[in-house]
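Subject: complex prediction, re-run

Hi both,

The earlier run crashed halfway through, so I resubmitted it with identical inputs.
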Amino acid sequence: MTTSLHTIETPAALIDVQRMQRNIEHMQARMDAFGVTFRPHVKTAKCISVTQAQMAAGARGITVSTLKEAEQFFAAGITDILYAVGISIDKLPRALALCQRGCDLKLIVDNVDTAHALDDFGKTFNATFEVWIEIDTDGHRSGIKPDDETLLTIARILQESGMTMGGVMTHAGSSYDYHTPEALRAIAEQERAGAVKAAQRLREAGFSCPVVSVGSTPTALSAEHLKGVTEVRAGVYALFDLVMHNVGVCALDDIALSVITTVIGHQEEKGWAIVDAGWMAMSRDRGTQKQTHDFGFGQVCTEDGTVLEGYILSGANQEHGILSHAGETDHDIRNRFPIGTRLRILPNHACATGAQHPHYAALAHDNSIDIWPRFYGW
Amino acid sequence: MTTSLHTIETPAALIDVQRMQRNIEHMQARMDAFGVTFRPHVKTAKCISVTQAQMAAGARGITVSTLKEAEQFFAAGITDILYAVGISIDKLPRALALCQRGCDLKLIVDNVDTAHALDDFGKTFNATFEVWIEIDTDGHRSGIKPDDETLLTIARILQESGMTMGGVMTHAGSSYDYHTPEALRAIAEQERAGAVKAAQRLREAGFSCPVVSVGSTPTALSAEHLKGVTEVRAGVYALFDLVMHNVGVCALDDIALSVITTVIGHQEEKGWAIVDAGWMAMSRDRGTQKQTHDFGFGQVCTEDGTVLEGYILSGANQEHGILSHAGETDHDIRNRFPIGTRLRILPNHACATGAQHPHYAALAHDNSIDIWPRFYGW
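This time it finished cleanly. Structure:
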């Protein structure tokens, strides 16, 4: 039996390839218009086929969140890789092995202790790395502030130890917390200005800083200009999700990832249909809980993708989802969604939902289904 | 280099085998004392080694949440398997294939439509299954109420279609919502009484009902007696987690699962240490958020497992965790947890955290580390 949308066993992660392609091309065209290179973050899908589509559209290099991703994508032929999590010293042997096999791997650092440890490692193993300095432009996580003296101290340690000074990078992850165009434009400008300032300080102090790398999906889609920036990174834009919809950077019908599920029971007096997609299929991500519209564990759509407004996955156990109307009790739930009904659920967070699945069912324009493996672990 | 607790690359899921063994033996001894058989739910760890320890301690058969689990554990030599999610018709060919290979697989059903569909499938493929009827004893999810007329209707359909009437099963999942011994004893008694009542109704109507199966970790550990029950199921008890600690059925030092992580940065003015265990390593589960003690994304311990009271993973991005003191800003965070410090984080929810990892590092009494694979997907 040929696999089709109607026969694939549930629960399954589905990628609408047309939507994905549209999202990828839109972002690339925007970056081309800004005159910056684009380095997609491949942690969202961890899937060679998705990344090949990004590269084919014009992406230059990739961003990864684990050395496992670096290894997998390097094996698939991609050499220009930014490992965008502050390097920890125990991971240096593995990073070095990748470099020695020909990978153009760039590491990031945001503190003096790690810079010294890099220096020690380099001396011990006669190794050099290309290192970028991580800048904190919004206080949400890691990095050093653009005007922090530490910036120059780190640069000095790296330069003296013979590391290649690749540039600066920042990620304004707090952009996920906003939902108006004005606020998004402001955080995008803050991200840009902070990274550019850090680069200027490095250059004025005599250090090389060829790359100024910024990005998050909301800021990449909201920036008014990118003066001084050389490259942009973004990840979730390729698939999008309900969190991004609430942020305001995609429509519901831009969301390219969903989970196909089957109705397996009802609790009529409560207005519940029970489906075979629980949190194991959707992830435990409740990212829309604190946003303007809470979609529970996901937005319910028909099997062909039509949004069923008001119907959400209101609860989830490991392999059971509770489907109900967000507003009122639907006492007709059993007739509306009979046993065996197949549905699509749009996820809160594409990165988290994808991570629950060993592969994607990639649905093409002609309704054929291709199986795209994805990997996990570290 | 031999893998040890101090060298295993982070983030990694660690099982303290002594704690696990103690948890398994304690539960089995309790069930033995009640004179009931014990059928562990293997969805928590999805790991052959963990389940072998459960079987060695005296478990009889297993409970699974997916057919993938059934296939994997059957391949490992376990034949008596309860698939404890309402069967959906599209999965029957795969269930039948397992039975034909010699698996003693039991299915569950809680509605007339599925019973009819089972009958149709049976006639078409000349197949019979052992079927248990799912009973709803606490309104938290699936099942039919013990006094619902549908119970006898389903039994009649199954009997007439030649299916083997295995018995009744229930899971009082709402037990997770309580945290006093009195409330837990009450929900355990409600679970027991509901299942026994359903079995009595079936037997009085002339149907066979050999098995009366109940269970959840909190009720299994709280029941005062199990009269009329023939078997108990529980899953998370083998590893435990912070949610179970808040429920009150385990101490912190009973928790056998943790995530090993490394400090990779600081934000001193905020009192943050940044670690390399984000939500990809911990899961997005925030199950303690609405409980008496909110542990954020996890409780921080030293590498050797000593609880560092007050220190939690207060935030998590995909590969970054934010470690801070839950009460006050620790301005000495950089000296307390220098770059490279290795820590253990106890998880909110063992089932969800385990699912993020391809394998466990199993730490034995002699401090040796064994790698125990786990699987995922459907």
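Chain B has two domains: 21-236, 252-373.

- K.
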